[in-house]
Amino acid sequence: MTAHPQTMGDGLITYSVDGDVALIGLNRPDKRNALSDRFVIALGAAVARATAEARAAVLHGHGTHFCAGLDLAEHSEKPLFEAVKGSRLWHRTFETIEMGEIPFVCAITGAAVGGGFELAASSHIRVAEETAFFALPEGTRGIFVGGGGSVRISRLIGSARMGDMMLTGRSVSATDMERWGGVSYVVPAGTALERATEIAHRMAQNAEFTNYAILNALPRIADMSADSGLFTEAMVASLATMTPEAKQRLKDFLEKRSPKVQAPDAH
Ligand code: 1HE
User: Fold this and answer.
1) 73 CA: nearest ligand 1 atom
2) Which residues are designated catalytic?
3) Ligand 1 centroid – CA 31 distance (Å)
4) pTM of structure
């Protein structure tokens, strides 16, 4: 573990590595971690660093809220084409999380609103405290999602539910979001970061190629016809089996050196 988290992006991000796991903290708590373009660029640099230095990563927010979404003060000043370029910057950055090389767990405390929910949706596992909440107040603000939410959030929870959230601006609790498929784990208040870090350490033990294939093959296969998807799956599955890591891990299991799958209570 790096003794103290370092800061990146003029303090907007905290960064540390704990064994194989990088911890990336959104660090603008006075503005509820609202994301300016500068903030997104700093986040992108931290994601690149984590990808080079770790085998899994955790994304969390400092302060009482994960992220209040787009920095509305900055956005209100933008000419049209700058807004387009800003949205495309978010897309590129979030894609380095979603279809990158290492899995990300998002620890959600308090609000995950607008672009904050879009950022969470680009990670692979969302751990939300029972007091956390989700909202898409774009309708209220007269804007639209621009951080990939129309693709990622609608795939997670369905476009009808996403449309409901955008049209009504209502807040959805962590437990309802879990029921909708937008959250994977609901945990007691104050424990999301710890739980997310545990999960990241577990994922970091997986074969690197398998993690890479999960991140990069699954979303692409979801976009394919069933026929193309099954063909692609066969190719990826065969490639995975060829890796030395897979050969070793299969041998370890057959020679009783690796643990069995446990019943759910043990997790
Ligand atoms: C902000 C932002 C922001 C807070 N941009 N400054 N996002 C929203 O519409 C969410 C707007 N924020 C809120 O509803 C609330 O701030 C929270 C529910 C997240 C938190 O409430 P609370 O009571 O803890 O904090 P606060 O007092 O509202 O905010 C503290 C400060 O942060 C305050 O500034 P101050 O100078 O008065 O201290 C707020 O103005 C500031 N702040 N949120 C700028 N978002 C790529 S497209 C994505 C589209 C979207 O993300 S739309 C959703 C935008």
Assistant:
1) 44
2) 118, 138
3) 6
4) 0.96
For residue 257, how far is its CA from the centre of ligand 1 (angstroms)?
51
Residue nearest to atom 19 of ligand 1 (CA): 68
Q: How many whole angstroms separate alpha carbon 116 and alpha carbon 99?
A: 18
CATH, domain 6-204, list 3.40.50.1820, 3.90.226.10, 3.40.190.10, 1.10.3720.10: 3.90.226.10
Q: Which of 255, 116, 108 is nearest to 186 (CA)?
A: 108
Q: Are 38 and 71 in contact (CB under 8 A)?
A: no
ipTM score over 0.85, yes or no:
yes
pLDDT tens string 64-84: 999 999 999 987 788 999 999
| 62: three-class secondary structure by DSSP | coil
Residues with CB under 6 A from ligand 1: 31-32, 34, 65, 68-73, 87, 90, 111, 113-115, 137-138, 141, 143, 145-147
